[in-house]
Design a protein that fits this description.
The structure is a single chain. The protein is an alpha/beta fold and about 220 residues long. Helix content is about 50%, strand content about 15%. The chain has a 6-stranded parallel beta sheet with strand order 2-1-3-4-5-6, with helices on both faces. Helix 8 crosses helix 9. It is globular, with a radius of gyration of 17 Å. The mean pLDDT is about 85.
């Protein structure tokens, strides 16, 4: 049986970068580029028009930057899976991108094989972070901004949901696994993020790894 390829939208303001990535991915059987955009505005429009499985997003672009584009795409398509590919590892790019909804963050000096693997991981719902970025996020989790911590610990069911989030499972998949409604799962995830003072599922997954609640080799 022929496997359906991962449909990918490629967003970068440099034509030579888009051409290079397209040429690289043309050699990969399970990934297909279905659209391109040269700025954030085009990315938002192309995401709606093509409905890609994964969006490979640059951050610094004219007209509209990648972070705003991520926010708009996720607002319109909450299940959108976005992998940032950028030259910038500064905190003022990393954390806003993750908070906006990016599931992965890769630097442009990464190896081609790392990019291909990151695309597959994000497609599967698993966070994929460059090691440099993962260290930053873990450091942020270990030393969060000074805020009063909640005296309300995670419930046993919330811990179970957190472990499944760390495995890269989507809300519908978690709902099926736990035999509950998707709305119930969304409520649990929201409570988890609030209690742990985390921005999104990427940080929740990293928190679970750090605390030993999940392994890095999710099945």
């Amino acid at each position: 049986m022929v496997k359906t390829p991962i449909r990918m939208l490629l967003v970068d303001d440099h034509a030579i970068v888009r051409k290079g990535i397209r040429a690289l991915l043309a050699e990969i059987d399970d990934i297909e580029v279905v659209g391109e955009a040269s700025d954030g505005r085009e990315a938002v429009a192309q995401a709606e028009a093509t409905g890609p499985d994964v969006i490979l997003m640059d951050l610094v672009m004219p007209a509209m930057g990648g972070i705003e584009a991520i926010q708009r795409i996720v607002a319109a398509q909450p299940t959108a899976r976005i992998l940032v590919l950028t030259s910038f590892a500064a905190d003022d790019k990393v954390f806003p991108a993750i908070k906006a909804g990016a599931l992965g963050y890769l630097l442009k000096d990464s190896e081609p094989a790392d990019l291909v693997e990151a695309i597959r991981q994000v497609y599967g719902g698993q966070p994929s972070l460059d090691p440099t970025i993962a260290r930053k996020v873990l450091q942020e989790i270990r030393h969060p901004p000074e805020r009063p911590s909640t005296p309300d610990p995670l419930t046993e069911r919330e811990m179970e949901v957190l472990r499944l989030v760390a495995k890269g499972m989507t809300n519908p998949e978690i709902a099926e696994q736990l035999t509950v409604t998707e709305a119930t799962v969304r409520s649990h995830v929201s409570h988890i993020l609030d209690k742990l003072h985390l921005a999104n599922r990427v940080q929740a997954a990293l928190y679970a790894l750090q605390e030993g609640l999940a392994t890095s080799q999710a099945e």
